[in-house]
Amino acid sequence: MAALILKETGATSELVVGDRGELSLWVGGQRVAGKGPDGFPTDDAVLTAIRAALA
Hints:
- This protein is α+β, with helices and mostly antiparallel strands.
- The chain has one domain (2-54).
- The protein has helices spanning 2-9, 43-54; strands at 24-27, 30-34.
- The protein has a two-stranded antiparallel sheet with strand order 1-2.
- Strand 1 and strand 2 (30-34) form a beta hairpin.
- The two termini are 20 Å apart.
- The model has no long low-confidence stretch (mean pLDDT 92).
């Protein structure tokens, strides 16, 4: 995921270990995407959320 984010947005990322099965994506202190009732977000959903937060 980190390589995809860097390639597609130019943004670097940091892995912070959380609970098993957890996924939260933060940009500038704001949670922009994460695992929900339907499971993990798609790569496209992650990139869309990051781009929107960086805009």
